[in-house]
Structure of V-type proton ATPase subunit G:
Amino acid sequence: MESSSNHGGIKLLLAAEHEAQQIVNAARTAKMARLKQAKEEAETEVAEHKTSTEHGFQRKLEETSGDSGANVKRLEQETDAKIEQLKNEASRISRDVVDMLLKHVTTVKN
């Protein structure tokens, strides 16, 4: 009788060990699935962040490049206006400068 009781106890222990192994395997599988899902979500978030950052960078680059072209045009217009102003000023005083130079060149001091 003791042998059948021992045999039943062994079977019970083996069944419990088998059930525990199934629980551990199920937990391991669930953990691996969660890790895989977390990895995929992280990769998606990284890709979204990278895309967002790249779009922001491209937008800033376009804004500053556009400003650069506008700045070049503005500077060209300011330069042209300044050149025209200098030409007008030179033509206005050129006769006075020539007269002053002739006066100093032709005046003899003793």
Q: What stands out?
A: DSSP finds one helix and no strands in the chain.
